[in-house]
Amino acid sequence: MTYTHIILFRGLFITALLAVTYLAFTPTDYSMIERINDKASHIGAFFILAMLADFSFPRSRFGWHKIWPLILFGALIEIIQYFLQSRIFSVYDLLSSLLGIALYGGSTPFLRHLPFIQIRWR
């Protein structure tokens, strides 16, 4: 992976962190169906964050030094939401975020074979 790729992925990673933070603190009104979709959104968002974190620092494998900051970020979001009147703390949201990280970690053996993202492992 070239230096240009690394800078691009780091920019995307920062942008994704900012977008997730904004969405996490923006007031919403959820119906039951939207709450189920919310869990899928957490899984997807943290899958993407895990992938971008991994791609942003390609010289090291996807391990605890990349996973712990993402876990702490997800926990911090939930802790802050506890203090917001328009949001609630949810263990299920945190578990969904952890599942997204785990799904990325578990899918890397398969992702290595996809032509459009193989660049990470070259």
Descriptors for this entry?
elongated, 122 residues, mainly alpha
- Helix content, binned percent: over 70%
Instruction: Give the H and E element order.
Output: HHHH
Number of helices: 4
Q: Which structural class best describes the helix and strand composition?
A: mainly alpha
Shape: elongated
Strand content: under 5%
Q: What kind of sheet is the major sheet?
A: none
Mean pLDDT across all amino acids = 92
Number of beta strands: 0
Give the total of domains.
Answer: 1
Task: Provide the low-confidence segments as ranges.
Answer: none
Rounded Rg: 15 Å
Give the end-to-end Cα distance, rounded to a whole number of Å.
6 Å
How is this structure best described in words?
- The chain is mainly alpha-helical.
- The chain has one domain.
- It is 72% helix and 0% strand.
- It has helices at 3-25, 32-56, 64-82, 91-111.
- Helix 1 runs antiparallel to helix 2 (32-56) and helix 3 (64-82) runs antiparallel to helix 4.
- The longest helix is centred in the middle third of the chain and has 25 residues, at 32-56.
Describe the secondary-structure layout.
Blueprint (H helix, E strand, L loop, with lengths): L2 H23 L6 H25 L7 H19 L8 H21 L11
Helix pairs in contact: 1-2, 2-3, 2-4, 3-4
Task: Offer a quick outline of the entry.
This protein is mainly α and 122 residues long.
